[in-house]
Structure prediction request, 189 residues.
Amino acid sequence: MMNETPHQNALERADERPDEKAAIRRSGDIAREAAALPANALILVPVRNLVLFPTVILPIAVGREQSVAAAQEAMRSERPVGIVLQRNASVDVPGADDLYRVGTQANVLRYLTAPDGSHHLVCQGTQRFRVVEFLDGYPFVAARVELYEEPEIAYGAETEARVHLLREQAKEALQLVPQAPALSFLHPS
Prediction:
């Protein structure tokens, strides 16, 4: 019995509680399926009326069953997700033709389940990608992707001076607001 996995141990402990046993078994099935994702594939979270850009941090509400499964699997397997915009926000179960082919890879910083049962992700965009091929056989949308290499931009002295001036003006404006949040981009290291 030394080679038992935590998943098997949890199943044995849940023998007397059928609902818990079924949930653990389902989570193990999802984990095995997601483990089979190719290295160049992402778990996709389709979104309505929202675009995530690299470096931006956004909260994202997830309500559809496949999106909740995607978020939970990304957290369980510590994989990034791909945030892709739906072409038509009124489509409830988007397929490959309902999604744009360019999205943003994101790290899931937090996954929250609210007391009302709603699910939320806090994601930080890392890099843009292009969908090469949608993958079937998963309880969530998944796709083989190709990451875009962002071009290096060299800023001149004039641009650097304008950025510095803008930061200083933003600091002054924030000092006028009581209880303004501390923003790290205003204090570069």
